[in-house]
């Protein structure tokens, strides 16, 4: 049984349990329950995993293939990520970045890249991942957005 199926069963079980008090002793419903089933993809990564995926794409010590695998544009996007890695290498050691606010809609996850360095203004960049097959990859638009932030181009 896959995770999506288990999630659907769990949601239906919750809906059924909520409806039980509405059923009379004779087994007839005394009121029609309103049930809303929200489908979320159990396989969609959250903020922490997306931060890790972006970190791998930026990590110049990781294999080029592993880095390219994180990008919608594949190997073509690695050169931009190399520029990002070079900029981070000369940034203050107090610089911190992470991915926050991940929201999935179909085959897309929108999020914000948050960059914080004490003593400097905070920066936020809208970025997104797209589902390619069974994987979530940083979109080419987002690679360009991040690259532009460090003076790189696509």
TrEMBL record:
InterPro entries recorded: Mtb12-like_C (IPR058644)
* Protein's UniProt keywords contain Signal: yes
Which domain of life does the protein's organism represent? Bacteria
- Keywords per UniProt: Signal
Domain (Low molecular weight antigen MTB12-like C-terminal): residue spans on this chain? 44-154
Q: Would you indicate the residue range of the signal peptide?
A: 1-31
The record's similarity note reads: Belongs to the MTB12 family.
- The identity of this protein, by name, is Low molecular weight antigen MTB12-like C-terminal domain-containing protein
Show the taxonomic lineage.
Answer: Bacteria, Bacillati, Actinomycetota, Actinomycetes, Mycobacteriales
């Amino acid at each position: 049984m896959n995770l999506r199926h288990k999630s659907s069963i769990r949601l239906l079980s919750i809906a059924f349990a909520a409806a039980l008090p509405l059923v009379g002793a004779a087994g007839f419903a005394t009121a029609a329950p309103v049930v809303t089933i929200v489908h979320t993809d159990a396989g969609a990564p959250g903020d922490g995993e997306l931060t890790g995926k972006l970190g791998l794409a930026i990590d110049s010590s990781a294999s080029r293939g592993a880095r390219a695998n994180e990008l919608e544009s594949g190997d073509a996007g690695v050169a931009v990520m190399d520029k990002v890695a070079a900029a981070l290498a000369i940034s203050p050691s107090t610089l911190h970045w992470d991915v926050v606010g991940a929201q999935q809609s179909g085959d897309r996850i929108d999020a914000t890249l948050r960059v914080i360095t004490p003593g400097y203004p905070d920066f936020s960049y809208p970025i997104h991942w797209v589902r390619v097959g069974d994987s979530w990859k940083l979109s080419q638009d987002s690679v360009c957005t991040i690259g532009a932030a460090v003076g790189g181009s696509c």
